[in-house]
Fold this protein.
Amino acid sequence: MARATFDLGGGDFVAGARPNKRLQPPATVPPSYGLATLTRAVAAAERQVRQTAWIMGYELHITCATSWLDAESTPIRSDLWNQVVAADQSLRSSKDDYFERKDGKGGTVRIPAVLWASDPEVAFWFDRGEITVKHASDATIVKMIELASALNGRVFGDDDEEYLLSDSPPGYVVRREAPAREPSPCRPWWKFW
C-alpha cells in the first residue's frame, strides 16, 4: 500500500491515515466518451469518496481521563496497550497501515494501526495516551468498551458522550450524553476577540 501524505495545518502529521492510498484528483470525462468510460469515471469518483472519508470522520476515543480532551493529562501507557494487544488473539499490529508524526525533537514517530480480525476495516490508533477509532460500528463500540475495561479506561465520542454496555438487555451499547458545561465567567460566549 502507498502512503497518503497530507499536512493538517501545523505540520503535525507527515504521513497518512488508513487506508493509506494516495488520493487522486476527481475524474473528469469529456462528453464525447461513451457509457463504459463514464461508468469507469463514476467508479473512480466513488473510490475517491471512500478514500477521503477515512481522513475526516467521527471518532471514538478510549482514555483514562474524564474527557477525551484531557487524554494527555491521564494517558494510557503504551506498554499496557501493547500487553492488551498481545493478549487478545483478535487484534494484531499492522506493518502496512501506519502514520508518522513529528516528535518535537526533529524526528518522527511511527504509529502502527492495530487491526481487529472481526472487522478488517477497523483500525485502532494509539497516540498521545489515547486510542481512537473512526467510523465505529456497534460491534466495534462493544470491542472498544471491552478494551477500555482492560485498560482501566472509558470510551468517549467526539462530542464527549460516553459509551457503556447495558445491563438489561446485556451486550447493548448505551450512549450517555456529556454533562452540560457552564459557560466561562471570563467573557460572554458571543465575544470572540
Notes: Residues 35-53 form the longest helix (19 residues). Helices lie at 35-53, 78-87, 138-150. The chain has a mean pLDDT of 74. The first strand starts at residue 59 and ends at 63.
